[in-house]
Amino acid sequence: MSVPVPVSVSTAVSDSPPGVGVWLIGARGSVATTVVAGRAALTAGLHTPTGMVTETALFTGTGLPPLSSLVFGGHDTVDCPLPKRAEALAAGGVLPHGLPTAVAAELAAAEREIRPGGPLPGDTRGPDELISAFATDIDDFVRRRGLTRAVVVNVASTEPAPTGSRPERLAPPGAALPPSSLYAAAALRAGCPYVNFTPSTGLHHPALAALAATSGLPYAGRDGKTGQTLLRSVLGPMFAQRALTVRAWSGTNLLGGGDGAALADPAAAAAKNAGKERVLTDSLGATPEGETHIDDVPALGDWKTAWDHIAFDGFLGTRMVLQTTWQGCDSTLAAPLVLDLARLLARAHEASLSGPLPDLAFYFKDPLGDAPTALGEQYAKLAGFAERLRGHGVGGPEPREETR
């Protein structure tokens, strides 16, 4: 439960000793703003860490960096400063009333660490120039702030899908790198673990396969599982385990805000829906009839309603229906997961783990590597990962001084 938020209290940035950087791609968006404001509220004792699995007993003694050690920066192509973005989120009910004022110092500190992203219209730089520029920004952040390491997390708007639902299989190796892949390459070039919290291509581009394989860095993704798909990853296995035949599974998402505007693009919506549908196919053993629709409703702001209609057969062919409605705020559902993942990847890097981390499938619609689909099995894998971290001492590799 949360406590009232005073409007004149602010925790000085210096009270949280620098230690681990969290470099956010899409650093002025709703999710990133909620991450920064939320972490500040937790370390100031204004709220409890509801929704953060890393703050439960499961991760006691695993050596995760404390929340107070996280330092934020990032890239973005928009210019609305974080304090103003936080005020807009509070006005829309996403952040508690008064919180932007209470954590103004932390928001301002993160805003000072945001650098221009790209490529912007008219930008003549080639892919390697952009990657080099982004990596230099990250290196500079780590050096200036005296950080032990930094984790790069993509929380930017969804990109249009390349061709089909599996860009890592269908995009030709010579295809131009989309922005998410430029940032992913920059993260590895800067020697940073990487998390793709979006359905965008990121490290999935075949041109980055060799770089990812030889980087010696841990990485995780893809597409954070916050609402409708979270529920599907529970219900799908339930039908399969009870031997109930699902005939059709249809869904609708109504949402506004920046995510709604981005997903109004049919190609971006296709990228988003691919992960939602894959969960059903993997858990049911076949793809049921029906589609998932995403509708942009600007009046809803950052709030989303997700509705599912499931037609299934029971004993003696009796036809039945289950309907579910999920209403929530994407930013406040996503923010605790982003904080979890930043801490987990930082600790994995410290423990000298590398490559894809399928044990973190619990957090994603389309997880990397050989990972189970059912949420219960994914949680068991996460528990095993926590035990694995306990087996590693603290004090792994420091960031490389020169990574180019």
TrEMBL record:
Family: Belongs to the myo-inositol 1-phosphate synthase family.
SUPFAM superfamilies: Glyceraldehyde-3-phosphate dehydrogenase-like, C-terminal domain, NAD(P)-binding Rossmann-fold domains
PANTHER family for the chain: MYO-INOSITOL-1 PHOSPHATE SYNTHASE
Domain (Myo-inositol-1-phosphate synthase GAPDH-like): residue spans on this chain: 227-331
GO MF annotation list: inositol-3-phosphate synthase activity
Top-level taxon in the UniProt lineage: Bacteria
Organism in which the protein naturally occurs: Streptomyces phaeolivaceus
Gene3D superfamilies: Dihydrodipicolinate Reductase, domain 2, NAD(P)-binding Rossmann-like Domain
Protein name (database record): Myo-inositol-1-phosphate synthase
GO BP term (any one): inositol biosynthetic process
